[in-house]
């Protein structure tokens, strides 16, 4: 039986400062498996900001329903 894929990664980069909200599911309880398959892994949301240099970044894990203000060049994963 096929175990399923690795899911989808949405990587969005801000081009200007903005307010961003996330409303997602399956962050506490994993998605159910079907046709005898096992449950999948839980999803995750992250705000990613650069710290001075492009090579340094800070990853902040966001909860399933959250809101933040992002600066230009920040990312949402």
From TrEMBL:
Any one annotated GO CC term: cytosol
InterPro entries: Hydantoinase_B, Oxoprolinase-like
GO molecular function, one term: 5-oxoprolinase (ATP-hydrolyzing) activity
Domain Hydantoinase B/oxoprolinase: 2-51
Pfam families cross-referenced by the UniProt entry: Hydantoinase_B (PF02538)
GO biological process: glutathione metabolic process
Coiled-coil annotated spans: none
Protein name: Hydantoinase B/oxoprolinase domain-containing protein
Organism: Bimuria novae-zelandiae CBS 107.79
Taxonomic lineage from the root: Eukaryota, Fungi, Dikarya, Ascomycota, Pezizomycotina
């Amino acid at each position: 039986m096929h175990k399923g894929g690795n899911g989808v990664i949405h990587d969005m980069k801000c081009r200007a400062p903005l307010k961003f909200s996330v409303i997602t599911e399956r962050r506490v309880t994993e998605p159910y498996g079907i046709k005898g398959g096992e449950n999948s892994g839980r999803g995750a949301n992250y705000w990613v900001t650069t710290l001075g240099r492009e090579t340094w970044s800070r990853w902040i894990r966001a909860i399933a329903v959250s809101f933040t203000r992002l600066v230009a060049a920040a990312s949402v994963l």
